[in-house]
Amino acid sequence: MVDISAQLVRELRQKTGVGMMDCKKALQATNGNVEKAIEWLRQKGIASAVNKSERITAEGLIESYIHTGAKVGVLLEVNCETDFVARSEAFQILVKDIAMQIAAYSNIEYINISDIPNDIINREKAIEMGRDDLANKPDNIKEKIVQGRIQKRLKEMSLMEQPYMREHNITVAQRVNQAISVLGENIKVRRFVRFVLGE
Are 142 and 134 in contact (CB under 8 A)? Predict the structure, then answer.
């Protein structure tokens, strides 16, 4: 299997708008060939969501969710293209599920990995580089270990990279793409706020 670089994954993501994990899978399946990876994504039905990713989303819902015990609450905005889809049961269920997901995972702070500021990434890297278990490792090994830990941490902080709580074998991004395919409109998670009592 070809080693897929982060740069190649980023390039495919920029061309398609598809999530990082799907891009990586497509590149692995096509031995790193970007053009074939785009075809692979289209065959899997992921590209149908990609084609819609540039369309304007000005409708949608603002959903509130208060977790049992009223100690955690979420306010979430998810956009779609038309009021018709915004009022559909499938869209409303998706939005409610995403709000519940945000309430359930306390470490979610951003929608996408690309939204995480560089100073946060650098801070996380500095923390990892200073860990005791890496003290005696050679620099090249230390760098690889830290890179792996950083990627894991960034995924934990990103809503779209989380395992979808109702189907753990897919991510939230893949669940949104499924909804795009079914509803035929672009859907964007716009913003959210998570409230914790006493914080």
Answer: yes
Q: What is the DSSP string of 118-132?
A: HHHHHHHHHHHHT-G
> pLDDT tens, 43-102?
776 655 555 555 666 688 999 999 888 899 999 999 988 888 889 999 999 999 999 999
Closest Cα to residue 62, out of 199, 161, 195, 193?
193
Q: How far apart (Å, rounded) are the C-alpha atoms in residues 106 and 103?
A: 7
Q: Give the number of other CB atoms < 10 A from CB of residue 177.
A: 27
Nearest Cα residue to 97 out of 46, 171, 152, 44: 171
Q: What is the pLDDT of residues 173-196, one digit of tens each?
A: 999 988 888 888 889 999 999 999
CA-only gyration radius of the chain, Å:
18
Check: CB of residue 173 under 8 Å from CB of residue 114. Answer: no
DSSP 8-state class, residue 164: E
pTM for the model stands at 0.66
* Among the listed residues 53, 56, 24, the one whose alpha carbon sits nearest the alpha carbon of residue 40: 24
CATH of 59-111+158-196, one of 3.30.479.20, 3.40.50.2300, 2.30.40.10, 3.40.50.40: 3.30.479.20
Question: Is-contact 104 89, C-beta < 8 A?
Answer: no
Helix, strand, or coil here: 66?
A: strand
Which candidate, 103, 65, 98, places its Cα nearest to that of 80? 98
